[in-house]
Specification:
The structure holds two protein chains of two kinds. By secondary structure, chain A is an alpha/beta fold. Chain A has one domain: Alpha-Beta Barrel (TIM Barrel). Helix content of chain A is about 40%, strand content about 15%. Chain A is built from eleven helices and eight strands. Chain A has an eight-stranded parallel β-barrel, surrounded by six helices. In chain A, helix 7 links the parallel strand 6 and strand 7. The two termini of chain A are about 20 Å apart. Chain B is an alpha/beta fold. Chain B folds into two domains: about 110 residues, Response regulator (Rossmann fold, 3-Layer(aba) Sandwich); about 70 residues, no CATH class. In chain B, the strands form three sheets. A four-stranded parallel β-sheet of chain B has the order 3-2-4-5, sandwiched between helices. In chain B, helix 4 crosses helix 6. Classes of the chains: A alpha/beta, B alpha/beta.
Chain lengths: ~290, ~220
Amino acid sequence: MMTLKEKIKNGKFIVTAEIGPPKGIDVKSQMEEAELLKSRIDAINVTDSQSAVMRLGSLAVSCLLKEKGIEPVYQLTCRDRNRIALQSDALSAAVLGIENILVLTGDHPVRGDHPEAKPVFDLDSVQLIGALRILEAGRDLAGKELKGAPRFCIGAVVNPGADPVEPELIKFEKKINAGAEFFQTQGVYDVEAFAKFAEKVKHFNTCIIAGIILIKSPEMARFMNKNVAGIFVPDGLIEEIEGAADRQQKAAEIAARTIKELKGLVQGVHIMSLGWNKLVPQILDKAGL
Amino acid sequence: MIITKQKKAEDIMKCLEKVERVFIIGCTQCATVCKTGGEDEVRKMKDFLEANGKKVAAAEVWDTPCNLLEVRKRARDSKDELSGSQVLLLMSCGDGAHTVSLGTGMSVVPANDTLFLGQSERAGKFNEVCALCGDCTLFVTGGYCPNALCPKGLQNGPCGGVKDGKCEVSPEIDCGWLLIYNRLRDTGNLDKMKKVLPPKDHSKSVRPRKITVDAVRKRQ
């Protein structure tokens, strides 16, 4: 079976989903969700204390997925670790057979549940991608030789809705040059606006995997519009979910429709269900994937 | 300038719990500008402490409490008042408090919290624009420091948390990287932003930092 890295290289359409480790060590529901997704997706992202809320580690849960025969995408943020810990954790992932690492800056701790924590950000996302490529070349950031070099499939994120978009594009290009092989995007709702972004980045010829965030309620959509950078849920979609008798069905329908419309523009989709992973199989059915 | 903020009165009183006689020392420099250790504030502090049952042996505003030689001189001049006090209440920055403690050998209580190296925008409004990192890159970042202006100190562009030009940390904070981007764009220097800045060398800011300026020493 092809790995995510090979599928990306071969231009295959990628489907990824996401699970969030629990606060604690009871991973039963996450493992059930993963089992449900297993036959339908190429890989599952495991978030790294997302929103700066302390949780079970993304490396441990990535490892549990790997044991189940599911390819994990280990999310690694710059928020909590300095360059020694980041390199060390990347090597730990490699030795555990985890190849895919998604590099993110990470939310500032003041946004999370330990606002008193010391923010680290010793490296930024561009520098971390570079560091992983240096490790692959058999050295560390200090130039010291490694005994056994790792191999990674390195992903990064890009926000097509960033305003202004130019600084985002500059950073996007830096990430490509540093060695990012694929990009997962912030949630996309407005396909027309996304198409303009896709056109702008077409010449980079990189693998873009569009983010799909299920709209669970009109309140959630309005909250994201107000508070989440780069997300824009059009009023029409908010009305649709507001008027729906069954919101789960409607959320799945909207996601499937968006995926269908995006198919020709991207090399994959990344579905962030926010706890509604059981809907993912039917979303993929409806989207014809 | 060193920006300070006066501690809450109850916190100062807690530090002075078992103390009867206090010597209050302000500063004519930064703390005067910040209204945390000038003549007015020192007088108010004296009145406040006396109203709360403390004896104030002296209340003075020293010229530069951060200058050890100056402190030693003042300490000689105020020998009697110092020996008549149990603690010194410092209405200065932490540097002043530390230096006075060293120069007098006495216990100090800081009346202020020391916040940051600040730019004075206008009277009473101060901004942190330099993080004292020891490795200045302002020439590539359009005169805006990402270490001071970006709460994450990112080196290679904005994170995904920019909303309406503001930082995810607070809607009060402008995204430092958008300031940098706008300046570089407007001055035709965007190529600088396209270059990857390497990881910062934190060995240049290992604490405590000391420096001896040879040119000054030779002159003396």
